[in-house]
Amino acid sequence: MTHIPNHGRWEALxxxxxxxxxxxxxxxxxxxxxxxRGVLPRELLEAYRQPFAEIVSRExxxxxxxxxxxxxxxxxTQIMNIWTRYEIVRSFILNRRTAQIATxxxxxxxxxxxxxxxxxxxxxGGKTAWHADQFFWPLSSDLSVTAWIPLQDTPVxxxxxxxxxxxxxxxxxxxxxIDDRGDQAISASxxxxxxxxVKESFxxxxxxxxxxxxxxxxxxxxxxxxxxAVTMIYIDEDMRIAxxxxxxxxxxxxxxxxxxxxxxxxxxxINPVLYSTDWD
Length: 280
Ligand SMILES: O=C(O)CCC(=O)C(=O)O
Known about the structure:
Shape: globular
CATH class: Mainly Beta
Largest sheet: 7 strands, antiparallel
CATH topology: Jelly Rolls
Number of strands: 11
Strand content: 15-25%
Structural class: alpha+beta
CATH architecture: Sandwich
Distance between the termini: 36 Å
Helix content: 25-40%
Radius of gyration: 18 Å
Order of helices and strands: HHEHHEHHEEEEHEEEEHE
Bound molecules: 2-oxoglutaric acid
Number of domains: 1
């Protein structure tokens, strides 16, 4: 595995707070997402891109040519809970800086990790269909937020994440998984409701945070390089397991909160508290 130059320096920086403003917090609560600029230095993300790329290449099961894959496998290669297997990226994923931002946005006492994901939209990969993440998770409240961290400059045309502003308040279409039927249905209902779709390119260092019920999507990646992104999903430190509402939620209860029953606080060994206001 590639060595990370200046690893100690980056680890120290990842533990430092980011100056989030009241306007950022209002923006997140009003729109269900916020695009923060310059959260991490370019050099840090450049240093981590290669190790994440090596992990994805080692663990990917997508070996078929793009045109022989189903739509979901064309969207991205998804490798999850990397922090439990790869020491080299652990302090990046468990970092205090983005966990503290998540806590401020949610307005909670603190946050735990639900899980991480590397999401690599391969060169020539397809679109990410419209969806809302919390459909997949058996959570007792809507206090969840995903940090989406691209590992290169990412123009809209090459798969930057797009958000339907204010759609965390739109109930219609929440029952869809990530597929073409859901994509069409959600797209039509957002258009009918006059919801604005925010499409912005990301510079290296920008991070977006979206709420569990915010609808989002991304364009295909027609470029010659993979669109690499890493996400960390944070939940309220006091979140509990809700009765699973579908088979995905039943699966995720077992996988991301092992040993936690319905009604239990989500506090398994793989849901560490990553930031708590109690620590200050
Ligand atoms: O990276 C992508 O294309 C999709 C990301 C996503 O859906 C998410 O982070 O919730």
